[in-house]
Structures are given as structure tokens and as C-alpha cells.
């Protein structure tokens, strides 16, 4: 969803209600259902879609699948195909979550919705055919920020025990001081200008003093977090914060796999070589499968 102007001017183009299930393109070999699960206290219920391979009745690992969009765009429909493909390729239950978006719902509302979906998943593993000992989170871009924030929140609250985190070109640091963030001011798909606006819309009055659950790179202690796969792109302003976070996880004793893809832009889009796109997509799915089936 490339944005050429301001994020706030693009909201109307990306705020459609979710499609009915029968209008979603089917993915052979994968069943999908959706339901409303209890939301945070005093907040609306949260819509989730549950994807499961139909070739097995065994308890499978499960992953909460969080869409990106700069905290303000995107939706559960935007990850329908990727969630279904992940369920098939990784032999897993994939639960995509529709969380509230900024600026109408600023931090912590989106994270609270995702945490509500995660706790529902952890409490209903038998219902969805999941293995309670193998729960994971996955997200790209701002979905990566929410996924990483969930690992910190679950650790600190004594919440669901997570065994893996999969972060693709993640948003992690609101301070915007890295070399790549300083250098890439006009790159396609994502750049410093859009990053500044995104954090402002998400944090509001908290800009400049983000809690660690909003900007996980601010966390002083990364110990006790689940093993991670992190991917970054050479021409992405988010590149250096992703690399730095991976190195800090490793320093904290967390097993981490990091891959910086050369000659790629944020989210691996904007006219890249189709062969490279297929290779990157295949690696992401393989990394997910390895993380869920250690």
C-alpha cells in the first residue's frame, strides 16, 4: 500500500470494512473461519480469522498474524493470502487479528487488541486445534512493532508463553536516529517523513517519550524473550533499527536469526526482481516453519 502523500490523507482509501468470508479468495488446502473474541476491558470485541491446514487433525503450533500499515492503514483482509499461505507452508494454525487503528485509536489500543487476541488464542488452543506449548507472534512493518511489543508485554505480565517471534522489516524505534533513518528521506514505500507522521498519529502526546511496549527498541532488558527471526532491507529507513534490535536480542541471550536483504526496499516491494521476491517469500515461510517446529 504505497503512500505518495501524507498518511492521514490516505486513511479513507484503506478503511473499508472487512470482506465477508465467502468473498475472500480461497486457498486450496486451508480452512478459514472468523469470530469475535473478547476485547480489552471497556473496548469492543476483536475480530480474528483462524486459518488451519485441512490435511491433519493433529494439534499444530499457532501464530498470531499481525498486519502492518504504519499503525493507521491496512486491515485483516490485507493479510488474508499471506496468513493462509503461512498456515499451509508452516503447518500451523494462523490467527489474523483486526485491531483498532490510529489516529482514532492511539497506543495502547492497537496493542491491547492484539494482546486480547493472543490471550484468547492461548485459552482456546483445543478449540482451534493448536499446541499450547508452541505459540508465536508474527508481524511486518508496524505489525512487527506490535508483535515485538507483545513479547515484552507477555513476558512482563506473565501472560502466554511465546516460543517464537517473526519480524519482517519491523518498526521498532520512535527516536528515528539511526543511520538508515537519517539517510533514506525519500525512498519508495517508506521513508523518514512517513515514519515521523506514523509515530505522531500512533503516539499523540507520547511522541518523544514512547513506552517500551510501543517502541520495543527502548526496552532496556530484552532477556527472556522468545527466539526471533528478523528480516531487514538495504534501502529501508527501518533497516538499522532492525539490525540493532537483533544484535541486542543476541546480546541478551535470545536465539536470533537476522537476514538483511540487499537491494530491497521496505516490505520488499516497489518493483523488485520477481525471482528475488519469490526467494524472500520462501525464506520467510521456511523461517516461520523452523521457528514453529524446532
From TrEMBL:
Transmembrane domains' residue ranges: none
Residue ranges of domain Alpha/beta hydrolase fold-3 in the record: 63-268
Gene3D superfamilies recorded: alpha/beta hydrolase
InterPro entries found in the cross-reference section: AB_hydrolase_3, AB_hydrolase_fold, GDXG_lipolytic_enzyme
Keyword Acyltransferase among UniProt keywords: no
Alphabetized GO MF terms: hydrolase activity
Key words, A-Z: Hydrolase
Superkingdom field: Bacteria
Name the UniProt record assigns to this protein: Alpha/beta hydrolase
Organism name: Actinacidiphila epipremni
